[in-house]
Amino acid sequence: MKRAKPWLIAYSGVVAALFVASALHPAGLRKHRALAADVRRVADENEKLREKNQKLRREARALAGDPAALERAAREDLGYVRPGERVYELPPPGAKR
Question: Is the separation of the CB atoms in 65 and 58 below 8 Å?
């Protein structure tokens, strides 16, 4: 069996030491993992905001061109009522009196 060359053993030792130092150093592997988790979180948040923006665009187009949608929004969001209508406010289910 051949003996390993001394430079190969030294090289392997240096690589192992650098890997351990990188894993333990605050700016090394731990920081990389934390930053990767932040990237995933921000990407998920961006996707949710993109979907919300699309929904708001559709709603804005509907409000601009559809009188029924405009009336619905005025009633739901602003609480508008037509003359002669009565408004009854009911407590939410499970609310204590």
Answer: no
18 within domain boundaries: no
Q: Which two tokens stand for residue 60?
A: 């804005």
Q: What is the pLDDT of residues 37-92, one digit of tens each?
A: 999 999 999 999 999 999 999 988 888 888 888 888 888 888 888 889 888 888 88
- Report the number of secondary-structure helices (H) and strands (E) in the chain: 3, 0
In tens, the pLDDT along 13-35 reads 888 888 887 777 777 777 888 89
Eight-class DSSP state of 85: -
Phi and psi at 28, nearest 5°, equal -100, -125
Q: Which pTM value belongs to this model?
A: 0.52
Q: Which range marks the domain in which residue 42 is found?
A: 27-80
Residue 92 near residue 82 (C-beta atoms within 8 A): no
